[in-house]
User: Fold this.
Amino acid sequence: MGLVQKIVTWARIKSPWIIHFNTGACNACDIEIIAALTPRYDVERFGVILKGTPRHADVLVCSGPVTRQIKDRLIRIYEQMPEPKFVVAVGTCACSGGVFNGCYNVEGGIDEVIPVSAYIPGCPASPKAIIDGVVKLLASVDNAAKPARELVVNGT
Amino acid sequence: MLVEEEKIRQQLVERFGLPAEKITVQRERRIWADVPAANFGEIFDYAADKLGFVILATITGLDEGPTLGVIYHIARESGIILNLHTSVPKDKPVIKTVSARFPAADAYEREMVDLLGMQVEGLPPGNRYPLPDSWPAGQYPLRKDWKSDTIGKSEVTENA
Amino acid sequence: MPEREVKLTIGPQHPMLKEPESFLLTLRGEKITDMTVRLGYNHRGIEKACEQRTYIQDMYLVERVCGICSHSHSTCFIQTVEEIAGLAVPKRGLYIRTLIAELERIHSHLLWVGVAGHEIGFDTLLMYTWRDRELVMDILALISGNRVNYGMNTIGGVRRDITTDQIPQILSAIDKLEERTKYYIQVGTEEITLRERLSGVGKLSKEDAIHLGAVGPTARASGVDRDVRRDDPYGAYGELSFDVITDNHCDVYGRTLVRLGELMQSYKLVRQILRQLPEGPIVVKAPRKIPAGQAVSRYEAPRGEDVHYVKANGSDKPERVKVRAPTLANVQVVAHMLKDGYLADTPIVIAAIDPCFSCTDRTIATTNLDNGRTDRMDWPTLRTYGIEWYSKQGIDFTELNRKLRTMRESN
Assistant:
């Protein structure tokens, strides 16, 4: 129950509004991100809300190895988010390009394009790892009175 | 056993005078035929109209060195696939669209245009697929001599 | 108010950015008169990468063409390579592959039912189907070690065996899922609100489905009796019995019924597979270098026919790998389905071909041809527009949401 306790704790501190963006991913991470919102994991009860627009979001949850076609969009979304803002790279592709590293139409990890606050590896990253990563990120923000440092999550 | 497949093979050999070794029955439900570009069109139409190959599974383009190859994978409702291969010279890689009969061919043909530099006559105007608009001309990723790192990461972005 | 033609663009995420759009709609009032599709946002260059990597490396790459039907792509690719190499996969290996295939179909179809519910405002359906789906995710994780991207295949067979203690767990999950699916079928067939919302939407006649090359449940819902598992059998399907589910509604309602019917068939297939599971090895050794040759393979993925072509040249790397995913066939049909439909239908009609998520993460832009002004909507806004538009027509899911919640919570 440690994880639940952590979530309850930071939910009192802040309830982050999240925007999810797929930069060319295979969708495995995307369905695990959405699974994190559904009953078994259900982060919504802790105040984590999925928003449709970057203008209201605190955290950009990103999957995918960033295809050329999508790169500019990713930058614009990031620019539209108000400060303070955080970027979570979900999945190995978002961290480094994953299996698609070296393919002619991908940039590589999200951090090739925008600054990343937290990396959640996994292929795909499981809902537990995703929640853990977001929780760790926000806990670190709350603990330190400065912008989020890079964190790497070893979750399953 | 392979009665139907052999029958199809015979019909194609007889009607178009194709050399026997250019059409093979690989196994049940799989026939491979290598036909000259000159009469590809009529063979394709015959297979679709008269032999019941009414499903276009996909079209594969290949870099064969001096030529670009095209394989049309067409299937019968019963599951038999006829793989019709033809080649065109790389310095004049022109084929005719089959999208009038198979509208789905549109995407498969555009893919060959973008990735191999194929020229497809008769393709209606439309968006390119799958490369971005700003992809430099003359760069064909699926050609054997094209290296994946030819175009730098930040050189091509979608929007000016 | 004079009707004008308006061009509406469903494009990528950001509202204020001028970019190449995914879907361009032409409107007359609230009706769609035309639509064009622009693809490529997910183009990663996989086919090229395959030529530069070994067959084993390609196995892991191809598995990630799509994460929702990863086993489909993996199996279709491997089947092709095995055929070129002349490998006879042991029966037990084929049965295990087929088991995973059907479990994947189950997870994918349940996912789809939930997504469809979300698009029309029936959100409790999303919550309950995805909760049920966790049962099959658990089973997939039990068997393969991962919830998604199972890595079960290798060239020559499968990498992991089914153990005897796993079998009752799988059967128990299937029993529960079958009960719940029966309830969703009941909701689908008996609830007027759902029926009215989905009927006549995204119309596709049988003739058009055939002519335009639709595949999978999208085609079968228009009465097209095609299923690769029966027509061009692979894996263990030659020894299994099941019904191909077709429907004649030719609309989104039909596509819903087909997927629900296929779920029931999948439960039946899983039980058969486990009952008939032969003893013996699960894999046969494969050479590192695949002899020169070529083959084409088809597979009935949850979304429809998946086609892989491989040409080998005698080395440890393929000469050519071609992948035609089912969504590419179906997305070319969407324009036709939306013609003469309402703007409010757009989210569910696109969702009903069961496309990849990235196709649906798009922004909508409106160009008013009278004054040249451009407005933009994002997908969630279009979804809300659709839900509210139908609500005004008297089709509202508030009551059904409440009803489903009450019935499920009381169990």
